[in-house]
Automatic annotation (TrEMBL):
<feature type="compositionally biased region" description="Basic and acidic residues">
    <location>
        <begin position="163"/>
        <end position="177"/>
    </location>
</feature>
<protein>
    <submittedName>
        <fullName>PspA/IM30 family protein</fullName>
    </submittedName>
</protein>
<dbReference type="Pfam" id="PF04012">
    <property type="entry name" value="PspA_IM30"/>
</dbReference>
<feature type="region of interest" description="Disordered">
    <location>
        <begin position="154"/>
        <end position="193"/>
    </location>
</feature>
<comment type="similarity">
    <text>Belongs to the PspA/Vipp/IM30 family.</text>
</comment>
<dbReference type="InterPro" id="IPR007157">
    <property type="entry name" value="PspA_VIPP1"/>
</dbReference>
Length: 223
């Protein structure tokens, strides 16, 4: 499991590059890599816990064997003091059994303790690497989002200044100018189509105003 974790951590960069080449989402792949690493760490924690339990069990058996060695030694002394040679012999024979057991357990326990130290160090290293990858993942995600935003803005800006947009704007400007020209033309046509009666009516209207103005002036002179 440690080797698998190391393998994943080693080629993350190459996998990300491949993902970009295939137009895959690098952010989603980063999240998947982190989930894989987290699963590896959980497996490693389980393995280390089992190893520590095994070490603890061997330590207990080793300590129990040494306790029995000491106990049978004291019992042999007690039997000798009681002039019971047969009982002393049996105590010493049983003591030798525990001595052999303790010797066998000693090497096994020491190896288990050494393995526990190595596994715990590897687990700690895995967690440190995971934390580093977590930081790197956040950085890569931010870079990916920034790149997406820049691409979107650049595409939007390029479409705003495109020939199609410019020509469309110019067409609308020409239409406005055409509307203005048509309005001016219609006003000229209306002025040119005034009837003779309209002109006389306007003339009479102006004459009435002039007569009224003259009457006011004459009134002021009398006063």
């Amino acid at each position: 499991m440690f080797q698998f974790f190391k393998r994943v951590q080693t080629y993350v960069e190459s996998e990300l590059n491949a993902a970009l080449d295939k137009a895959e989402d690098p952010v989603k792949m980063l999240e998947q890599f982190m989930r894989d690493m987290a699963a590896d760490i959980r497996d490693a924690e389980t393995a280390v816990a089992k190893q520590l339990a095994n070490e603890k069990m061997l330590k207990k058996k080793f300590d129990d064997a040494n306790s029995m060695i000491e106990k049978r030694q004291q019992q042999a002394i007690q039997a000798v003091e009681a002039n019971n040679e047969e009982l002393a012999r049996r105590a010493l024979e049983d003591k030798q059994t525990y001595v052999k057991q303790a010797n066998d357990l000693k090497s096994t326990y020491e190896q288990a303790a050494s393995d526990s130290i190595v596994l715990r160090e590897k687990l700690a290293e895995m967690k440190r690497e995971y934390e580093q990858m977590e930081i790197k993942k956040d950085s890569l995600k931010a870079r990916a989002e920034s790149a997406k935003t820049r691409t979107m803005i650049n595409r939007t800006m390029s479409s705003v200044g495109s020939d199609e947009s410019r020509s469309g704007f110019e067409r609308m400007e020409e239409k406005v100018m055409q509307y203005e020209a048509e309005a001016e033309t219609s006003e000229d046509l209306r002025a040119g189509s005034r009837s003779l009666d309209d002109e006389f009516a306007s003339l009479n209207k102006n004459s009435a105003v002039d007569d009224e103005l003259a009457a006011l002036k004459q009134q002021f002179k009398k006063e």
